[in-house]
Amino acid sequence: MELIDTHCHLTFPELVDNIEAVLQRSKAAGVTAWITVGTDNAENQKAVELAEKFDNLYVAVGIHPHEAKNVTNDDIKQLKQFARNEKVVAIGETGLDFHYDFSSPAEQIRLFAAHLQLAAESNLPVIIHSRKSFEETLDILDRHGTGVGKILFHCFGYTAQEAKIILKKGFHISFTGQVTFKNAQKTREAAEIVPAEKLMIETDCPYMSPEPMRKQKINEPALLIHTAKFLAELKNIPPEDFAQTVTNTSRVFFNLPQIK
Ligand SMILES: [Zn+2]
Ligand SMILES: [Zn+2]
Question: Cα 26 from chain centroid?
Fold first, then answer.
């Protein structure tokens, strides 16, 4: 089985302090490529530096909606610089999070629109973080996302009905280990209707270890195999076939070269 962790935060201290061992365990488990996702410019800087050191490690650069209230025009300029790095394969994570109100809706919307503009200019896909803001996220995408080629809703937590709307728009959907949790019936119903060709998987580590490893407090890319096996079973697809399909989907979506 060969998998790509399409959304991890390898620059966070829980992981970066042991990065060699973390990546080694990941490869041993069959998770052989990674997209580490920036959440502010300090993390984007670290992510780009980390990607320069390791093969098959790619970067998404973005400023998380939680940080929106602190963002200046200079931050956006710096983000544009990062987007030019050859290991950067996406813009994000960006979007709207009305669950935690760390920044106001107006601040989040402004920052989200700036990311969409940057993605269009740099011809890169966008990784969307959207929580308790389904209508608003689609509204901003309609108004500011027309020049963006490819869109991925990460850590999908909406319903099957909402998944259908997203698929109809041509977007992709990614699931974390959250889908394996006992109380995640709604997410499982959504995962059931997303075709494997439109689906990706991610750890979003260091958070949210999948079952049966949920007790492991620090999640890491190696644990992605549990989410892969779980979803393959849920969707009644042989695990090898499922892995091949989602890996291919991820490779094409992010325009990744062959794994070295
Ligand atoms: Zn997120
Ligand atoms: Zn994330």
Answer: 17
- How far is the centre of ligand 2, averaged over its atoms, from the C-alpha of 197 (Å)? 22
Beta bridge partners of 126: 91, 151
- pLDDT tens digit sequence for 116-167: 999 999 999 999 999 999 999 999 999 999 999 999 999 999 999 999 999 9
Length of the chain in residues, anyone? Answer: 260
Ligand nearest to the CA of 97: 1
Which ligand neighbours the alpha carbon of 99 most closely?
1
Distance 96 CA to ligand 1 centre (A): 10
